[in-house]
Design a protein that fits this description.
binds glutamine, Amidase signature (AS) enzymes
């Protein structure tokens, strides 16, 4: 086995025992990147000098008798939506071309403090708006399983990097499915934590009531290791929750006997590719064999998730993205301008791509006087009904199961001109963000030689339970061990 083929857990064992050094591991990753990045295009920026320095630091700690945490020396790739001090952070947008943040996002700092060498910044849909990474202003990332297909999005670079062996763990962000859907399409595991579980400080805001940072990795155990680093209250994020953080790795007992799972009817029916549905049903059968009780549940308000999301997310985005005005940082037009409004208009017209401009217009419309009640307020009310459907389902179910994505990865360009189809790619994941609950995607089979992802949703702050369920499945199956050939 090559070093880049090992899971983070396996790397951690070898690093702790002294079998390999952090510098060797990091070098192995850059060699792998050197050989396959040209085909996959997962990264926007590589930070080899920074990574090597961090790796040598970890080796020094260990040589000096220190016992750093289990991930010390295990490299990490960072989605370009997270601020990295002194290192370019573009959000996949021309608007932030060349922007070097003066501070680290809390999640980035936590990875640094844990001794995880930073490999680089990964490609993404501009400002995390999209489901295929095709909305990046810089490059098209390819799915390592089939280079003519998309890796999903918006964290497509992070997912493709892990799937291609170019990072053992990557950070992503998830507003409507942007960790889980690319994880599913690339055949890896990805977790969207409960809203408030992980700090959003330094995460460039898309829709603040929906955004969460989380890990993408080869398996659930690696997600648990990463969550031990990422989770917890942060004084710099007032919405981060002061809720005890369990040891997520210790929670992976392999025992799911007697747990009750619901399968929401609304997420298994119309719009789900029949072959994907069959694969999910087979996975559900596996959970039954593991001793879980399975039952169909009805959650009628879930049918409204997509329209509700596409009012709330653009409304919040329109407000958040108002800060890109060409005054303090980011792109500024070089055209002659007649006044400050002209400066804003030209700067924003040049800096933002078409999808982002569309979202800003939609959001501004939904919030404008006379329409606020009809759209934004109404959407908030229906959001509450969706949350209530989840509350009711979790009264007698520990977890809920459904597909992560209605289809396997589609072709590059295939849906680029069909905004509705593109948005439907997140139809199974969006309800989770609206309710603020945690959800995990794990690989559970192949259709058309492409990976299928199963979504496991849980009660607020019960990441440990959904990872226990996902890990139990991975102990019994080997879909998570399959790798694309590159
Ligand atoms: N596809 C959804 C959107 O474009 C979700 C993206 C995300 O989770 N960041 O808004």
């Amino acid at each position: 086995m090559k070093l880049y083929e090992l899971t983070a857990y396996e790397l951690s064992e070898r690093l702790t025992s002294g079998e390999v050094s952090a510098a060797e591991v990091t070098e192995a990753y850059f060699e792998r990147i050197e050989s396959v990045e040209e085909k996959v295009a997962a990264y926007l920026e590589l930070t080899q000098d920074v990574a090597m320095e961090q790796a040598r630091q970890v080796d020094d700690w260990r040589a000096g008798g220190e016992q750093p945490g289990p991930l010390a020396g295990v490299p990490v790739a960072i989605k370009d939506v997270l601020c990295t001090r002194g290192i370019r952070t573009t959000c996949g947008s021309k608007m932030l071309k060349g922007f070097r943040p003066p501070y680290d996002a809390t999640t980035v700092r936590r990875c640094r403090d844990a001794g995880m060498p930073m490999l680089g910044k990964t490609n993404m849909d501009e400002f995390a708006m999209g489901s295929s990474t095709e909305n990046s202003a810089y490059k098209v990332t390819r799915n390592p399983w089939d280079l003519d297909r998309v890796p999903g999005g918006s964290s497509g670079g992070s997912a493709a990097a892990v799937a291609a062996g170019m990072a053992p763990i990557a950070l992503g962000s998830d507003t409507g499915g942007s960790i889980r859907q690319p994880a599913a399409l690339c055949g890896i595991s990805g977790l969207k934590p409960t809203y408030g579980r992980v700090s959003r400080y330094g995460l460039v805001a898309y829709a603040s009531s929906l955004d969460q940072v989380g890990p993408l990795a080869r398996d659930v155990r690696d997600c648990a290791l990463a969550m031990n680093v990422l989770a917890g209250r942060d004084q710099y994020d007032a919405t981060s929750a002061d809720v005890d953080v369990p040891d997520y790795v210790a929670a992976l007992t392999g025992d799911v006997e007697g747990l009750r799972a619901g399968v929401p009817k609304e997420l298994m029916g119309e719009g789900i590719d029949p072959a994907v549905r069959t694969t999910i049903e087979a996975a559900i059968g596996q959970f039954e064999e593991l001793g879980m009780a399975i039952e169909e549940v009805e959650m009628p308000n879930l049918d409204h998730s997509l329209p509700v999301y596409y009012v709330i997310a653009p409304a919040e985005a329109a407000s958040n993205l108002a800060r890109y005005d060409g005054v303090r940082y980011g792109h500024r037009t070089e055209e002659d301008v007649s006044d400050v409004y002209d400066l804003f208009a030209k700067t924003r017209g040049e800096g933002f791509g078409p999808e982002v401009r569309l979202r800003i217009m939609l959001g501004t419309f939904a919030l404008s006087a006379g329409y606020y009640d009809a759209y934004y307020l109404k959407a908030q009310k229906v959001r509450t009904l969706i949350k209530q459907d989840f509350d009711a389902a979790f009264e007698d179910h520990d977890v809920l199961l459904c597909p992560t994505s209605p289809t396997v990865a589609f072709g590059i360009g295939e849906k680029a001109d069909d905004p509705l189809q593109m948005k439907l790619a997140h139809v199974c994941t969006i309800p989770v963000n609206l309710a603020g609950i945690p959800a995990l995607s794990i690989p559970c089979g192949m259709v058309d030689a492409m990976p299928v992802g199963l979504q496991i949703m849980g009660r607020p702050f019960e990441e440990a339970t959904i990872m226990r369920v996902g890990d139990a499945y991975q102990r019994a199956t080997d879909y998570h061990r399959q790798r694309p050939e590159l």
